[in-house]
Amino acid sequence: MVKAAVILAAGLGSRLGKRTKEKPKGFLEIGDKTLIEHSILHLLSSGIERIYIGTGYLKEFYEELALRYKEITCVTNEQYDVTGSMYTLFQFKNYVKEDFLLLESDLLYDQAALTILQYHHYPDVLLASELTDTNDEVFIEVDDKNQLVNMEKDQNRLFNIYGELIGITKLSYGTFQALCYFADKELQKNKKLDYERALIELCSEKPIAVHKVKELAWCEIDNEVHLKRAVETVYPQIKENMKDRVIEKKILLNPGPAATSNTVKYAQVVPDICPREKEFGAVMKWTAEELTSIVGNRADYTTILFGGSGTAAVEAMISSIVDQDTLLIINNGAYGKRMCQIADAYGIHYIEYKSKQDHPLSLKKLEAIIKKRWPKISHVAVVHHETTTGLLNDIEAIGSLCRCYDVELLVDAMSSFAAVPIAMERMNIHYLAASSNKNLQGMAGVSFVIANKKCLEQLKNIKARSYYLNLYEQYEYFKKTGQMRFTPPVQTLYAMKQAVVEAKKEGIVNRYNRYKKLWNLLIKGITELGLNHIVKEEHHAKLITAIIEPSHKRYHFNELHDYLYERGVTIYPGKLADLNTFRIANIGELEETEIELFLYHLKQYLEKLDLLNN
Ligand SMILES: *Cc1c(COP(=O)(O)O)cnc(C)c1O
Fold first, then answer.
1. In degrees rounded to 5, what are phi and psi of residue 368?
2. pTM of the entire structure?
3. Which end of the chain has fewer CB atoms within 10 angstroms, the N or the C?
4. Which atom of ligand 1 is nearest to the CA of 385?
5. pLDDT of the residue at 118
6. Separation of 519 CA from ligand 1 center, angstroms?
């Protein structure tokens, strides 16, 4: 995918008279935003990460804009009043070293235009439309392969007219270099050269595909008539089209899958691809490496991906790592218990350390158990964040203990990974399991184990207990081939890659801070309604909270659930045997206003049942 865009915005826009006396053309307002901001928002939501603007006339406007969008870099064409658009583009010679989308600043367009170019299989593509009859068209002539031959404003000078130039083009870095090479010589003779002319000169050696879109809402704004058309016809059409594409926002307060961004959702819509292709291998490799980097250095740790829900990774870990010795499983909630059940299913020797659900475990007791059985105990397994209660286990202290007894540590970090900071080396964690759909904010379907490479290599000698969920085999195969052993969830992995991009962009620390803010808001709200939660703040991960249900007989969880669900809010039942609770997760693509909305509806509901004391 192309990650950069160049917008040519140096020109005077003199045909718009007084409208462009005090501001450049890109700052004309259409609807609620300026033309340039419409364009920038489209670019960002199409996955563009770097936007270069070629400025000249009234460049301060764009420089002010760059202060608001950190993705923008402005580069000035100082001779904007005596040069053409190629001169502006040439200024980027030393800035842009990658494929990019080239756009003019006076365009209003439907974002679909960018999607077409992003996914187009040719590296150099010029976007064309049907003729718009706006009296200012640039007509395009193509050959029999729909490749660019010529462009002219005067249609009599062309042999055929295939379509009209939109002014949005995808250029490969190679073609850009060739363009600059040509322009370098040509601009000395003719500073007024425009980029369209330069492309024509180049297209016999670098074929440029012309892609004609059938019904794209777009226009260029050069004069009053264009502006009127933009406001009255094109913009309403774009808004109408957007409506069809907007995905309704649901407020998910269940403990995963968490709500995702639209960009993560859309990332799944890709051309069909065979997952054995190198191109797809690169997607998995990149994603796996970035996952490793969240918790460890890539020299010593690696990520092994599996298709499956989170439990698949936990199962791969438990079944592949412990050989003839004993696994000590810490159980202080439903997910600790699940590890015992997995060990049971595979007939693994284990002992269970059962500890209270709402209290930190006792390190002393844990040490006593290890000591008593030592050296039979080879591994300890623990859930980092017990999703049933919100209790955060102190894995760093457990890791230190394991170091003393030379025992390896396995952590189920499913609901803490990518929020609560983890450092595998410092915390002495040898294996860690997590999945795509909780704090990572991706789609459900990929789970993974992050492992110390030295430990992994040792697993070679253990007789396989599971064919599919074999950690060593999956690791070895991926290392050799860049592929998973069996068909991966292809589209889910594309979404996961985008989720990783977005997690990096937000930053794990910032993400956790955002979650914690939401948690504070939640706790304040439920406390005001007279409700309590079970784990004390100092031991709470602040991600998922078990809230004690009202004990009144008029209250039924399912009715509360349905009441909220009808209003776009999803909540989740509790999972504790001895206490009636429901659970609220404050993770995922969530905002404060959405927690407030939940609290509002909860209050309304409790009032309706007359369950509020005041
Ligand atoms: C969510 C979760 C899992 C995995 O659940 P799946 O339904 O298999 O995705 C495992 N452990 C913990 C602590 C979890 O929160």
1. -60, -40
2. 0.71
3. C
4. 13
5. 86
6. 20
